[in-house]
Specification:
The complex is a heterodimer of chains A (468) and B (235).
Chain A (H helix, E strand, L loop, with lengths): L7 H8 L1 H38 L5 E5 L5 H9 L5 H44 L4 H25 L1 H33 L11 E5 L3 E6 L8 E7 L7 E6 L7 E5 H7 L6 E4 L2 E11 L19 E6 L1 H6 L6 E7 L6 H21 L4 E6 L4 H53 L3 H32 L9
Parallel strand pairs in A: 4-9, 6-8
Antiparallel strand pairs in A: 1-10, 1-11, 2-10, 3-4, 3-7, 5-8, 6-9, 7-8
Helix pairs in contact in A: 2-10, 2-11, 3-9, 4-5, 4-6, 10-11
Chain B lengths: L5 E10 L6 E11 L4 E5 L6 H8 L7 E6 L2 E2 L5 H11 E4 L11 H11 L6 H7 L15 H13 L5 E5 L7 H18 L2 E6 L10 E6 L2 E7 L12
Parallel strand pairs in B: 3-8, 3-9, 6-7, 7-8
Antiparallel strand pairs in B: 1-2, 1-4, 4-5, 9-10
Helix pairs in contact in B: 3-5, 5-6
The chains are: A alpha+beta (468), B alpha/beta (235).
Bound molecules: adenosine-5'-triphosphate and magnesium ion (MG).
């Protein structure tokens, strides 16, 4: 037999429907808002995290003053530090050797010349020749005749050899001394003398870009700076919010935040670097969630900065300076924030030293964990989630309060019924279940409807638009 | 008849403390045999309802004990007490205590649901003469009808012990007699042990066992071997 008390529940609902309606509406509203916020946030966090691997987010990037040689890339990939001191010494030695050799040659020539001249003049004095022209012609003749021979002789003399060795040794000592002094400064500055250094191996991708001027309305006035990447890039891929990637050299895809902000739509024509392109895609680069042109910018600038994608062909036709930007992925991913900093520091040491010994120059270095363009939005959402959580706790408190009042009034009203049921043999547990079923049903109904509404409602708001 | 089915021993109970302390039961002793129709008589305030509540395990005594078939209620834990009330006891309250948002039939079903060996609900309704009021709610019933429902809810459990607290207190002569006949049937047909509280002296003639209370103690404890049916009672 079914518990006849169950029949009380719909009757209770029917008789007190306005009370429960108010409670349900209230809960639907609150839960709807919260679940909407959560679902929206979850989907953002989900798409942001999904992008990390699917869109091949770099672990960092660096820019060089000119294109890196294959050896340099290989050396950087190895994660090993270059022996900068030895490089300085080698370079110094080469220079010093050349100088010493030149000096010796000059000195030798002078000495041999002088010896021959002195010999001829001594003979002339002995022979009583005093005419200077005469003497000079004897000297020239002697030079002609004996110079090579004398030079050879001088070279082979032990005296000379000793002097040469001494000169080289002295020069080398000077080089080492100078290098050590300089090296110590550099090593200190970049903490290169690290005995615990471990190489951080990476895979490097060419990720060149150009900064061009963008003219949204083709009026000849620059409206924004646009950073252009090639559509065949293997790293830091874009997800397309609308449209597609450019397929020929007259097509361009631009950041959708920028497009929204300045009012560019699919199919619009914009001028970039003096050429006109048709906008065929609105995208979001995984490493440019917000429009931070420079990492030192405190705020994104979706008005004045844009990132865009061109075909390699169109990219190569542009004329502005090519930024030799390289992106890298760690072979082994760092586990947490501390490890990220550690990895980045070690990688930087390899990068600095290898670039230096390859006669290249680092223009810029940015590990992704410090990137504003990448992290501003997620940390903003994290902030949102704290707000949502607080809101949620308040809601729970409010619901608890409502039910405390409702239940306590029910219990007052039901005191004699409860006594009767207890005396008739209902257990405490059965009665708790009985009196809890109403609030539970109301809560579940409110939660179900609220979540359904919140979920549908938040779908419009699924993607992250920083300029709210 | 089994001896000492229900035993009340030195039962004491007081309410309040200090100045306001009131000794309601002051050492009460009696036994009831299985299947007995027992009437508790006593003036208002003599502790009849209090005694029933203690026997029903709803209230606890200050000292002394109640034992059923040799099991002391005080030795039972919450769970066993619940089972005792659920399986063995039928309780007809002085104040009816019907569940307001259940109709007549549903109120009686509450009793049936709790019992292992319930009587047929429809049959009980018919016996109680409530067939025309089956779907009425308590606030649509007269006092006598409510009392019948209250009895129905206890009787339908087919309990070992049926305790009735002034089942006829608020009823007129004719209805009172009908209700008494009904309780009598329960005793004779199903063998329930009846403990019925009343202050109507006339009712004692239908009982096997009459216990008179006064000032918290048993004053008279008489067996009646010349009981007459309820229908023949007069007052
Ligand atoms: N919970 C309680 N708290 C304080 N006093 C109580 C309580 N229950 C009963 N009493 C007191 O105990 C005494 C006995 O009450 P009880 O209800 O047992 O009387 P009764 O014999 O059933 O009377 P009646 O015939 O009027 O129903 C009364 O004086 C009453 O005031
Ligand atoms: Mg009473």
């Amino acid at each position: 037999m079914r518990n006849p008390l169950i029949k009380r529940i719909p009757k209770e609902l029917a008789s007190d429907w306005h009370k429960y309606l108010v409670i349900i509406l209230f809960m639907v509203g609150m839960i709807g808002v919260i679940s909407g916020m959560y679902v929206g946030r979850e989907s953002m966090v989900y798409s942001i995290n999904k992008g990390k691997t699917e869109l091949n987010l770099e672990d960092g990037c660096f820019e060089l003053s000119h294109r890196a040689s294959p050896e340099l890339l290989e050396n950087i990939s190895s994660g090993e530090m270059a022996d900068v001191r030895q490089y300085f010494i080698d370079e110094g030695m080469k220079e010093a050797d050349k100088e010493v050799a030149d000096a010796i040659e000059k000195e030798l020539n002078e000495q041999v010349t002088k010896a021959i001249e002195d010999g001829v003049r001594a003979q002339c004095v002995a022979m009583g020749v005093t005419d200077e022209d005469m003497i000079q012609s004897y000297v020239d003749a002697a030079m002609e005749e004996n110079f090579e021979e004398a030079l050879k002789e001088a070279r082979n003399s032990d005296e000379f050899k000793e002097a040469v060795d001494e000169a080289y040794a002295e020069a080398h000592d000077a080089v080492i001394e100078a290098v050590d002094e300089e090296w110590n400064d550099i090593a200190e500055e970049y903490k290169l003398n690290d005995d615990n250094f471990k190489p951080t191996t990476v895979k490097i991708y060419e990720h060149f870009y150009r900064n061009e001027s963008e003219d949204n309305n083709n009026d000849g006035v620059e409206d924004a700076t646009v950073r252009i990447f090639k559509s065949d890039s293997e790293i830091d891929l874009a997800s397309f919010v609308e449209g597609r990637a450019p397929e020929n050299k007259n097509e361009i895809a631009i950041d959708r935040n920028h497009a929204d902000t300045v009012g560019i739509k699919l199919g619009d024509k914009i001028t970039v670097g003096g050429r006109e392109y048709e906008v065929v895609g609105l995208l979001s680069y995984v490493n440019y969630l917000t429009m931070h042109e420079s990492n030192t910018d405190l705020m994104f600038d979706a008005f004045g900065f844009d990132v865009a994608m061109l075909t390699p062909e169109a990219f190569n036709e542009l004329t502005s300076r090519l930024h030799y930007n390289y992106s890298f992925l760690y072979d082994v991913k760092p586990e947490d924030k501390v490890a990220q900093a550690d990895y980045s520091e070690r990688f930087l040491k390899a990068l600095i030293t290898q670039t230096l010994v390859d006669d290249n120059e680092i223009k810029d270095y940015l590990p992704t964990y410090l990137s504003q363009a990448r992290n501003f939005a997620p940390s903003d959402i994290e902030g949102d989630s704290v707000g949502t959580a607080i809101f949620c706790y308040i809601l729970i408190a409010v619901i608890a309060f409502i039910f405390a009042i409702t239940i306590s009034s029910t219990i007052d009203k039901e005191a004699s019924v409860i006594g009767t049921l207890r005396a008739s043999g209902y257990s405490k547990g059965e009665l708790i279940v009985h009196y809890m079923s109403m609030p539970v049903i109301v809560t579940l109904a409110g939660a179900a409807i609220g979540n359904a509404l919140g979920y549908t409602g938040s779908r419009q708001y699924g993607d992250y638009a920083p300029h709210r | 008849m089994e001896e000492n089915f229900l035993e009340i021993k030195d039962l004491k109970k007081s309410f309040g403390t200090g100045e306001a302390k009131q000794d309601v039961l002051r050492g009460m002793n009696f036994t009831v045999k299985k299947g007995e129709f027992c009437v508790l008589l006593g003036p208002s305030g003599s502790g009849k309802s209090t005694l029933l509540n203690i026997i029903g395990g709803i209230d606890t005594p200050d000292s002394g004990f109640v034992s059923i078939k040799g099991d002391k209620l005080e030795d039972m834990d919450e769970k066993q007490l619940t089972i005792y009330r659920r399986k063995h006891l039928g309780y007809v309250f002085q104040m009816y205590n019907l569940i307001p948002n259940l109709n007549v039939k549903e109120n009686i079903e509450v009793g049936a649901y709790l019992s292992d060996k319930p009587l047929d609900v429809e049959e009980v309704i018919t016996t109680l003469g409530l067939q025309d009021h089956k779907y009425k709610y308590p606030n649509q019933l007269s006092g006598g009808q409510q009392q019948r429902v209250s009895i129905g809810r206890a009787v339908v459990k087919n309990p070992d012990i049926l305790m009735c607290d002034e089942p006829t207190g608020a009823l007129d002569y004719k209805t009172s007699k009908e209700i008494l006949s009904l309780i009598e049937d329960c005793n004779s047909k199903y063998g329930s042990t009846i403990i019925m509280v009343t202050h109507n002296e006339a009712i004692k003639y239908m009982a096997d066992h009459v216990i008179k209370l006064r000032d918290g103690v048993v004053r008279h404890n008489d067996l009646n071997d010349k009981k007459i049916p309820a229908s023949e009672l007069e007052w």
